[in-house]
Amino acid sequence: MDDFLICAVSAGAFDLGILVLIICAYCEKRSAVKRWGRISADMELVEPGVTYPLGCDEILIGRHASADIRLADISVSRYHAMLSVTNGVWVIRDIGSKSGVYVNGNLVKEKKLSENDTITLGNRRLIFRKIRRKERNQ
Question: What whole-number distance in Å separates Cα of residue 80 and Cα of residue 96?
């Protein structure tokens, strides 16, 4: 009987430990999402029918399969542009594309982005905007 009691208490303590770990992981995930929201200013890139979340501090845009945002269009260079963020400020930089990077119709090598800027890479037009929570949850 004593062995059974020891096993039951051990199993209960183990289950309690696992539950605490799950709760801590959930809380950490929620706080990480909030921190990333502050760092990224909750921005995204969109084009008709497609939304590209900006989920890290450097994002490679291009035609190549290894690009973070892949634009399968021959007018887009394999490695076209790099998006980066620091403290909520997003910057786009041309990384040697053939057709250039245009922000609001102006050719740029590097440019700080503002909400609703139009980015043109080859024949593709992307809008830099705040995440629309309603669309995201559908």
Answer: 7
Cβ neighbour number for residue 93 with a 10 Å cutoff = 13
Measured between alpha carbons, how far is 63 from 10 in angstroms, rounded to an integer? 55
Q: 74 or 138: whose pLDDT is higher?
A: 74
Give alpha helix (H) positions in the chain: 2-40, 133-137
| pLDDT recorded at residue 122 | 96
Residue type, 65: A
Helix (H) or strand (E) holding 76: none
Say how many C-beta atoms besides its own lie within 10 A of residue 54's C-beta: 21
Q: Helix, strand or coil for residue 84?
A: strand
DSSP secondary structure code for residue 135 in this structure: H
DSSP annotation of 64 reads: S
| Residue 41 pLDDT greater than 80, yes or no | no
